[in-house]
C-alpha cells in the first residue's frame, strides 16, 4: 500500500482531543511519525537489536499498539529462534489492514499473529519481549499501572519490556526548551507553524505525557527489577525494563 505525505493538519479549526488513528492517519502514518518523532528511525532497528538479546525459544513477543508494523517487523527479524511468535495488537482496523499488507510482503520464518483489539483487553502470556512503542501515552493515565502489572505477570524470567514515550519534564525551563527544540525539529521536516499548532490541539487530552521519574517508578511498582534508559532525543525516550535478573542483565563493573 502506498503512503502519502502528511497534510492532515493544514487547515485551521482542529478540535482539541480530536486525534484518531483512522484511515486518514493510517495512509500518512509513516511520513507523520518520521517527521514528528525525533529518533524514530533509530529506535525501530534498535528494537530488533534488543529483541535479539532477550527473545527466548518457544515464547511470545508482543507489539502492543503495532500501528503499521514497524516494531513488529523489527522484533520478527531480531528474534533468533524460529519457535518464537510475534503477536501484534492494535485497536485500529485501518492500521491492522495496512500492517497485514507489510507482514505479507516480509519473508521470515517467525510467525506473526495480528489482533485487532484494545490492548487493555489483550491476554499477555509466556512473553519474553513486549514492546510499547509510543503507545502507553495514549492509554488513560489511571489504567497505565494495571496494564504494566499485567504485562509483567505475563512475562517469563529474563524477559524485557521496551517502552518508548514522549515525556514531560519536572523543571519548567527544561520543559520549555525541550518543547521548542521538538517544534524546531518538526519545522525542519517541513511542518508549518499552523500544522504544529493544529496537531498539538488535536492531541490534547489524547496523548498525555509523563515524566521519566514517573515512568521509572511505575515500572518498578509493576514488578520490573531494573529500568534502563537507552535512548533520548529532546522529549522522546526509550527504556528497557527487565522482568528478572538473568544472564542478559549485565553484571555490575568491578
TrEMBL record:
Q: Look at the named UniProt entry and state the broad enzyme category this protein falls under.
A: transferase
Keyword annotations for this protein, in alphabetical order, are:
S-adenosyl-L-methionine, Transferase
GO terms of biological process kind? tRNA wobble uridine modification
InterPro entries tied to this protein: CmoA, Methyltransf_25, SAM-dependent_MTases_sf
Describe the location of the Methyltransferase domain by residue ranges: 63-159
Q: How does it assemble?
A: Homodimer.
PANTHER family given in the database record: CARBOXY-S-ADENOSYL-L-METHIONINE SYNTHASE, TRANS-ACONITATE 2-METHYLTRANSFERASE-RELATED
Record's protein name: Carboxy-S-adenosyl-L-methionine synthase
Q: Gene for this protein?
A: cmoA
